[in-house]
Design goal:
heterodimer; A: alpha/beta; 4-stranded antiparallel beta sheet; 10 helices; 10 strands; about 25% strand
């Protein structure tokens, strides 16, 4: 569903991503891990068409994000790392607005929104202006909004920030459920326990390069330790060769360049 | 840490903004514009003050009064000097009122709504340091523009009375205690207000009242019909009014003490007494002391109350009214049902954001006042029964009126069309990641600007032409021009608004006064002027024919046709370019 082929993104002289190649099939929940500045958010922004690649190609559900962005965007639900919303709207109005952007009828929006608002205990708050919401409430509202059009691909950047434990657990359950329903999920997170709990496969980025890709057990088996240890080792100031790890041998459908 | 240490992040932010503001050319252009305005103000004030100084040469009554005064008091000031003193007194008094309101609004932000207060109050910094940093921030933010305006005005004073160079060096000195006293009064008012009212509501209310006051003043000024002062008898009435017995009260205010010091520097016979010096400087020092004493007692407690109230508001504020309480469609949704679902969604979001933003409403009020004044000006034109006011003269007036109305529409587009894309803020990512598509979004923004703008333009044109009693053909031309010119005005507002977008700006009212706003204004007025200039060619031929000053005996319709097509083409090309530019720019915009 998501095909990233030799994706490079440079900002002036600094390259945030360097020849990243990654393939995520339908129904897979893929976790994107990496230290700060590794290129996770840049990858996600390129996938959503918010940032243009310097070189390389990205296809979403078979549609090239550069040449056919509208078809690609129709399939994607996106939750950014910071919940920027329209503060002067109520929760209901915001959801109606987002539903409208995806061409949903008011009845379709309402049916889906009620279900999601219920899930996140937001029903009682949805009639209030968003400017009065806490950070966590905004995060829950934007997750709700991004799922209104029942996307086939769900891209989430740091979804747990600001969520209370109960909501975080609900989000994890929801992500797993989405995977089971055949939705492709790409999840960027710093919370390794969340990645362990939710993801079918994990990609680790460091300095704009894919340094490891594989199922959780495969990664753990390689260093015979926890995911945290694997992560710390892979993102140290060392080269892949020194660690004895070859990212391109890690997964069947992904490769690091 | 001292107070300047607390101000360092703000100073650093200003420095970095300037450093990263892009081209040096833009900065130089900005500086040139500001300098141009200041020089213009200097010449304007110099001319005005000079006229007033020589007022006794206008009216024989005043000349006689002056002669009597000179006979009795050898060193007495002239009538012109007295009047200029009163002008300065009233000018500084008005500035004092403006400064007071501006300080109250700024202090509400600095003392209660500033984002750094959490960190500052949680740190072991002495309250004195916090107070003086916030006090300085309030004073500089609310007074720098007033100071900038005062410089050309007072320099004009110096020029009129032949001041030596040290006047220009020393005249800012008396303004320092004047501004300090105003800031203290503003901060004290804010502290008292915040003790009893929620900060956000107080700020909105004050902004609203300030704009309402400005609007009322503008209306009053126009209704006074200042153009009548060209008549010496009317001017005499104004002078007697200025010299009315209530005026000495102005001398007992900080503005009055500052005026006396400034005039003393000029060597005019109104020098400040030692008591005036003491009141001005001593008053400023005492006001800061009192302000600090009050702040040290109630600021922290008020801020804590405000935090608690904000938390409570988050937990309890019910709804934005019945409309947003459910998914049910309101009357407006039903009214827009003819539009596509995405178009309706964007439009409804814009309308809701608009009517819930008090900042925008205050701007609407000012614009309404300007439009009323515009129509009133047309109404006051002395067109009935005066020699020289021929139908041809009225037609020229109506033709120029198209340009004036376009100017009003450009000003409106600058306020509401140009910031339309920036108003999305960082929420623009929702538009960008949705399948709505940038071309469709830009067209939506264009139509949502064009429809209200063309409606206002037509209202102004129809009313003004009706008041001017023009013939049907010029009436039709005005209507067609309004429709076509507004197309270009609205499209360029969207194009320039996209290019000069600022998704992170906190205050929406700042967007029109940005560099991009100035460029938009100049470019759009240029297009309108050229389009109207092209149409002026056949109009001039028609005038020559009507006055029989041309050799040609017939009106060349083909010239009118070519000019009409050229003018129309220019506007349509500008419309297309504006939209295409906006679409292209936003399509390739990277949001990081």
């Amino acid at each position: 569903m998501i095909e990233i082929d030799k994706l490079t993104k440079c900002y002036g002289q600094t390259c945030a991503l360097s020849e990243l190649t990654l393939s995520i099939p339908a129904g897979e929940v893929c976790g994107l891990l990496g230290p700060n500045g590794a290129g996770k958010t840049t990858t996600i922004r390129v996938l959503n068409g918010l940032v243009r690649p310097t070189s390389g190609r990205v296809t979403i559900g078979g549609f090239d994000i550069e040449t056919d962005p509208r078809s690609a965007k129709r399939m994607v639900g996106y939750v950014p790392d910071r919940p920027y919303l329209f503060e002067k709207l109520t929760g209901h109005e915001f959801l109606a607005f987002v539903g409208g952007l995806y061409d949903l009828t008011p009845a379709q929006t309402e049916a889906r929104a009620r279900e999601m608002l219920e899930l996140y205990d937001l029903t009682g708050h949805a009639s209030r202006l968003i400017e009065g919401y806490s950070h966590g409430m905004k995060q829950k509202l934007i997750i709700t909004a991004s799922l209104l059009h029942r996307p086939r691909i769900f891209i989430v950047d740091e979804p747990m920030v600001g969520l209370d434990p109960r909501s975080a657990r609900k989000t994890c359950d929801m992500l797993r459920a989405l995977g089971r329903q055949g939705v492709t999920v790409l999840l960027s997170t710093h919370t390794l326990s969340v990645a362990e709990m939710v993801c079918d496969r994990i990609a680790i980025l460091n300095r704009g390069k894919l340094v490891a890709l594989g199922k959780l057990d495969e990664l753990k088996a390689r260093s015979r330790t926890s995911l945290e240890e694997v992560f710390l080792k892979l993102t140290e100031e060392q080269t892949e060769d020194e660690l004895g790890l070859e990212a391109d041998s890690a997964g069947s459908s992904g490769s690091a360049s | 840490m001292n107070s300047f240490g607390l101000l360092a992040p703000r100073l650093g932010a200003i420095k970095n903004t300037l450093r990263n503001s892009g081209s040096v050319g833009a900065l130089l252009a900005w500086s040139a514009v500001v300098l141009g305005i200041l020089v213009g103000l200097f010449f304007l004030s110099h001319r005005l003050l000079l006229k007033i100084d020589r007022v006794d040469q206008i009216s024989p009554v005043l000349a006689m009064g002056q002669a009597v005064r000179s006979f009795w008091m050898e060193s007495s000031p002239t009538v012109g000097q007295l009047l200029n003193r009163m002008v300065l007194m009233m000018f500084l008094f008005s500035l004092m009122a403006m400064l007071l309101i501006s300080n109250v609004i700024t202090a509400l932000s600095a003392f209660f709504a500033s984002e750094d207060l959490d960190m500052v109050f949680a740190s072991p910094v002495a309250y004195r340091t916090v107070f003086f940093s916030k006090y300085t921030e309030t004073m500089v933010q609310s007074s720098w523009m007033v100071m900038l305006l005062l410089i050309p005005f007072l320099a004009g004073f110096g020029r009129v009375y032949g001041a030596s160079w040290w006047f220009y060096v020393l005249f800012p000195l008396p303004l320092v205690p004047f501004i300090v006293t105003c800031t203290s009064a503003g901060v004290v008012t804010t502290l008292c207000l915040a003790r009893f009212f929620p900060v956000n509501r107080a700020r909105s209310l004050l902004r609203f009242l300030a704009v309402l006051g400005a609007g009322v003043l503008l209306m009053l000024f126009r209704i006074m019909r200042p153009e009548l002062l060209i008549n010496p008898e009317k001017l005499k009435e104004l002078i007697f009014m200025l010299d009315a017995p209530w005026n000495p009260h102005l001398e007992r205010l900080p503005s009055g003490w500052a005026v006396k010091e400034i005039l003393g520097l000029l060597g005019l016979p109104f020098s400040a007494s030692p008591l005036d010096h003491g009141l001005l400087w001593g008053g400023a020092i005492v006001s800061v002391g009192l302000c600090y004493l009050l702040a040290s007692r109630i600021h922290l407690a008020s801020w804590q109350d405000h935090q608690e109230a904000a938390g409570q508001e988050t937990a309890e504020t019910p709804t934005a009214g019945k409309a947003g309480a459910t998914f049910e469609e309101g009357p407006l949704d039903r009214l827009l049902r003819g539009l596509s679902v995405p178009a309706r969604a964007v439009l409804m979001k814009d309308i809701r954001t608009f009517y819930r933003s008090p900042v925008l409403w205050t701007q609407v009020m000012l614009m309404i006042v300007i439009m009323i004044i515009y129509v009133y000006n047309i109404y006051l034109l002395p067109l009935r029964g005066l020699p020289g006011v021929t139908p041809l003269f009225v037609e020229w007036l109506a033709f120029l009126n198209i340009g004036f109305v376009s100017f009003v529409i450009v000003a409106l587009a600058l306020r509401f069309g140009f910031p339309a894309i920036s108003m999305e803020g960082m929420g623009f990512f929702l538009i960008h990641t949705s399948p709505l598509g940038i071309p469709r979004y830009v067209r939506l923004k264009f139509w949502s600007s064009y429809v209200p703008l063309v409606a206002i333009s037509l209202i102004l044109v129809v009313i003004s032409n009706w008041l001017l009693l023009v013939r049907p053909w010029i009436f039709c031309l005005s209507v067609v021009d309004s429709i076509v010119f507004t197309l270009a005005i609205a499209a360029l507002a969207v194009g320039f608004g996209a290019y000069y977008h600022d998704f992170r700006r906190q205050s929406l009212s700042e967007i029109p006064s940005s560099f991009g706003g100035m460029v938009y204004m100049v470019a759009t007025l240029g297009v309108v002027t050229v389009a109207l200039g092209i149409q002026a060619v056949p109009f001039w031929l028609y005038t020559e024919l009507a006055l029989s000053i041309a050799r040609a005996q017939t009106f060349h319709w083909w010239v009118a046709g070519i000019c009409g097509v050229l003018s129309l083409t220019l506007c349509l090309v500008a419309t297309w370019l504006g939209l295409a530019w906006g679409i292209r720019y936003l399509t390739y915009l990277e949001i990081s």
